[in-house]
Amino acid sequence: REGSIGIPVPDTLIKIVKPETEEQLPFGEVGEIVVSGPTVMLSYMNEEKETADTLRKHQDGFTWLHTGDLGFMDADGFVYFKQRRKRVIISSGYNIYPSQLEAVIDAHPKVRKSCVIGVSDLFKIQRVKAFVVLEEGVNEPLDEIKKELYEYFALNIAKYAIPKEMEFRAELPCTSLGKLDYRALEAEEMQRMG
């Protein structure tokens, strides 16, 4: 099903629970994806605490692997991945998913790639900041591009999730696997804020 990661393989159970609990959520509601079945690992080698945090026996008698991924399940059992749990920005009580914002920002024709992070904020807990790399050949003044992007955001992003700050970069840091290293940008922001 389009947008879905599919249904569980035979003998594997998946459910969506309220994060930090065993409480199963109704279809369509976003929570943590947990998995149980014969293909689930037995433990992390020599990591008892990590194993206890990840593998938990629920009241139903099954041991469930808490994936750390957020998603939801539809009424037909198809699962939809939304975001890594650790990468949610909480701003004024709203859950904001950076990967969704990045998809919108990256769809703008003048943007090559972006990375969105949460920055500490005294009043909102976190505010949204976007780092943007422009397409080659885009040479308009940055103020004009920023204005154009904010107009685009107003049409495509919920008001509470629009980035409060935007920083243009020539490149963005990547991990050794070639993925955007949002943690490096978070560390930079923490250093900058002192």
How does this structure look, described?
The structure is a single chain. By secondary structure, the chain is α+β, with helices and mostly antiparallel strands. It is 22% helix and 32% strand. It contains four helices and ten strands. It has helices at 48-54, 98-106, 142-156, 182-193; strands spanning 13-17, 31-36, 55-57, 63-73, 79-84, 89-91, 94-96, 111-121, 125-134, 165-168. Strands 1, 2, 3, 4 and 5 form a five-stranded antiparallel sheet that branches. Strand 3 (55-57) and strand 4 (63-73) form a beta hairpin. The longest helix is centred in the last third of the chain and has 15 residues, at 142-156. The chain is elongated and about 60 Å long. It starts with 12 loop residues before the first strand and ends with a helix.
Q: What does this entry show, briefly?
A:
With 194 residues, the protein is an alpha+beta fold. It has helices at 48-54, 98-106, 142-156, 182-193; strands spanning 13-17, 31-36, 55-57, 63-73, 79-84, 89-91, 94-96, 111-121, 125-134, 165-168.
Topology, element by element:
Blueprint: E1 13-17, E2 31-36, H1 48-54, E3 55-57, E4 63-73, E5 79-84, E6 89-91, E7 94-96, H2 98-106, E8 111-121, E9 125-134, H3 142-156, E10 165-168, H4 182-193
Parallel strand pairs: 9-10
Antiparallel strand pairs: 1-2, 2-4, 3-4, 4-5, 6-7, 8-9
